[in-house]
Amino acid sequence: MFNISSFLExxxxxxxxxxxxxxxxxxxxxNQTNILLKEEDLEIKEGVVFITxxxxxxxxxxxxxxxxxxxxxxxxxxxxxx
Length: 82
Fold this sequence. Notes:
Elements: H1 4-33, E1 42-45, E2 48-51, H2 55-63, H3 65-72, E3 80-81
Parallel strand pairs: 2-3
Antiparallel strand pairs: 1-2
Helix pairs in contact: 1-3
């Protein structure tokens, strides 16, 4: 018989991992650029982080993009920031 709790547990783990990864990205961006992002400003799809913020904020983040990716990839695999 199909067990709904085990099925929903897969989604719960994914949401926790996604939230943890967003927190890590926020911390790294803060350390590198002194910009404080919110979780709502980040969307992660297939290893790519999409930042939805003002153009000025995005430009400053992209200036430090290489260092940010190096720090994030010490613990998690992120391919790119966009």
